[in-house]
């Protein structure tokens, strides 16, 4: 069986969340399908999306919506972020499971447009994650008060 530190190191170097890793099963036994799928994935969907956006930025194609947004700059992308944020709030106010599913779809649109905006500014999503990690364990009110200093 592999040591937890080895599993975490492997997860870190392969962009996998270490909490998804499980120790290797006894030889001849396979992990349940669900666990195999989680450990086989090389990139999270958000990382795949970011890579696609960066590829469109590096090699713009006029038929690409992402490339068109990037060409429009922060003003165009920012307008879409604001529009999508309003749509998330609107969908969140809809009742029942249909409203919940609509909220998920609109949140996906918002995240996509936010990633495009970050790319336009040269910001990687990992930098946003690092900022969130820095704030972990800090009261929201305390963190906000520290910004003013």
Specify the CATH homologous superfamily of the largest domain: MazG-like
Number of domains: 2
The geometry reads as globular
- Contiguous helical run count: 7
Helicity level, as a percent range? 55-70%
CATH topology of the largest domain: Helix Hairpins
The radius of gyration is: 20 Å
Q: What top-tier CATH class of the largest domain fits best?
A: Mainly Alpha
Question: What series of H and E elements makes up the topology?
Answer: HHHHHHH
Question: Which regions are unreliable across 5 or more consecutive residues at pLDDT < 50?
Answer: 1-27
Give structural notes.
The chain has 149 residues and is mostly helical. 70% of the residues lie in helices and 0% in strands. It has helices spanning 4-13, 33-40, 45-58, 65-92, 96-120, 125-135, 140-147. α3 crosses α5 (96-120) and α4 (65-92) packs antiparallel against α5. The longest helix is centred in the middle third of the chain and has 28 residues, at 65-92.
Task: Offer a concise description of the structure.
It is built from seven helices and no strands. The protein has 149 residues and is mainly alpha-helical.
């Amino acid at each position: 069986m592999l040591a937890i530190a080895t599993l975490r190191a492997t997860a870190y170097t392969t962009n996998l969340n270490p909490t998804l890793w499980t120790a290797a099963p006894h030889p001849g036994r396979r992990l349940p399908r669900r666990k195999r799928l989680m450990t086989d994935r090389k990139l999270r969907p958000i990382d795949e999306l970011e890579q696609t956006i960066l590829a469109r930025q590096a090699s713009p194609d006029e038929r690409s919506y992402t490339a068109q947004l990037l060409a429009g700059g922060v003003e165009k992308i920012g307008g879409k972020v604001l529009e999508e944020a309003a749509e998330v709030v609107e969908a969140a106010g809809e009742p029942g499971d249909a409203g919940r599913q609509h909220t998920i779809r609109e949140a996906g649109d918002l995240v996509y447009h936010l990633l495009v905006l970050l790319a336009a500014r040269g910001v990687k999503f990992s930098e946003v994650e690092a900022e969130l990690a820095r704030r972990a364990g800090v009261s929201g009110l305390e963190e906000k008060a520290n910004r003013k200093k």
